[in-house]
Structure of Rieske domain-containing protein:
Amino acid sequence: VAAPGREALRQRQADQGAQDAEARGAHEPFRSHAPRVGDDTQAQPEAGSYAWTKQWYPVCVVAHTDPKKPHHIQVLGKDLVFWCDGQKQWRAFEDKCPHRLAPLSEGRVEEDGTLLCAYHGWRFDGDGQCTAMPQVMGDANEEARMCKSARACARAYPTAEHHGLLWVWAESGADAFLESMTLNPPRLSEEYLELERARGGDSDGASGSGRGGGGDTEYKVNEWMQRDLPYGWDSFFENAIDPAHACVSHHGLVGSRYTDAIPFQWASRRGASAMDGFRMALDPAPPPFNVVGNYQATCEYDFQPPVHLRFDWEHPRGYGLAILHYCTPTSPGRCRHFQATVCTKDAGGSFDEQPRWFRLNKLSFQPSWWSHIVSPTFLHQDLVLLHSQEKIVEQEDETWFGACHMPTPSDKSVIMFRRWLQRAGGLGWQLPPAARRLPPIERDPTKLFDTWNAHTKNCVPCQRALMVTQGVMLASGVGAAAAISGGDLGTGLALGANLAGFNILRDLFYKYEFSHQDNGDDLWNIFARDILLKPAEDADMKR
């Protein structure tokens, strides 16, 4: 892949951002103030109602989703079903049959490419047109006449495939299909787009790499990861844009809760606006993104509503990292998260000499099923805190600003996000007020850390890996029993140990618990810190 240099990438991304902002102008629900340099409060968009339903939302990683089945998703509280029709096009309907309102997500994708309702057998094509009513009295002409009724149609929503993700527009109807054509889904990094261009089209979400032919930038892009989280869209972004928690919540993996939590300052890079969010920077960055006395790395956070946060980290030695977050609000207290990682390096940089935090993110460049198991460690370390925190705020019966005390500059980005959300009129749930309250706090860790429902059941690569794991376990168990009964104790014990190891692996597809009270120098942290990462980090410190 012939990738442009870093400055050219930045300029192209800035130009594309300006073009996207201009294209979105017709959807701008309220105007924004110009930023005031040095003002700690930052300019905020004028109060108004953000057009939440006139936006694109990602619902799945296409390459990891079974096209032979319909799939349920909520977007802003609205129940939808997405499925792949006979033309290999992904479609989205409201998740109810027009007949008796049974969920279409419980139906079947038939061989003729229609979606069949499992209740009475009505069928629908990709446009939502009813094609079959088995209960109609009379001949085929009468059935065709009744199928043409507008009331017999499923309610269809616009869909689009971009960057390996399936996107759904959050309104239905003829106007929605026209409006959706004027607002493109959020763009990814230029490195990711270069990978797509080299493949001759849209990316399928698979990992890849490129090297500058006319430029000096080399990059690597990993596969998408998708996960349903038991806390809200707003809690996710509040946490993702808060670097102060990293060394504390992620103690042992990216830093120390005792020595790396330090003061730091924020700087504005783009003032807040209704449609384009805001961009803030840390220069220099605090730990774990920096090592005082060794290098002065920079970090920038770019929030692009309603679903995107881009994190950029650059090392002065010529390499960097972009973490691309997308988060869809599904229902109160729940969201669906997508993440991809882009590693870059200039001519003098190296992918093998980065600090620990950088190399941890590189672990995601593994077979998809393995990265889906290991990489969400970060999400699991935050999970209980975010799940409980938002519900405690609601129980306080106060506004978020009234309930929380934030006296230090480190919370500036969080305040910026919450002010943006407040000015936008809050999340645009498509639910009656009584249904918008958060569920109670879940105290059972087996339910909070339920990885089967959060990920595995929706991921084809992980389901395949689970089947292989179970097959190896069965073979190991049978082999161990046969070896021991035959007097070969050594082989039996070896196969038994193999069985135990794969049993641990199998369990991770179903449940992956984490406890901050137990997060000391445990085996995982010793492995990650001292065996996997420490030797290369020592070499980096000596340079």
About this structure: Confidence is low (pLDDT under 50) at residues 1-6, 16-47, 529-543. The domain at 56-180 is CATH 2.102.10.10 (Rieske Iron-sulfur Protein). The first strand starts at residue 56 and ends at 61.
